[in-house]
Design a protein that fits this description.
5-stranded antiparallel sheet; mainly beta; 1 helix
Length: 99
Amino acid sequence: MEYRDKQQILLRDVIEISMPNGPELARVVMLGESYDRLDIDKEFIDWVLSEKILDHDSIVVEWVGPNPLAHNKLGIAPAGDYMFTGISEDIVLVRRGHA
């Protein structure tokens, strides 16, 4: 898996994602092509693995700052800490993460 500049996508990478209210920072926590992942919420991982919902060309990220999708709207499911996203022009590597 590669960014648009042909650099390999790695776990812990900090990326910038274009969102409706401007760019946001997120950390890569799971890779779709291999299902390699960081030590994140076990229930979330169990769900992803059992349902096989992560596409080969997608990643899972967690927000570095406040969740830009968070809301208090009744009748709408809350936004979780993790987001699935495909690899697109809207994702840019900011810096490599540390182990």
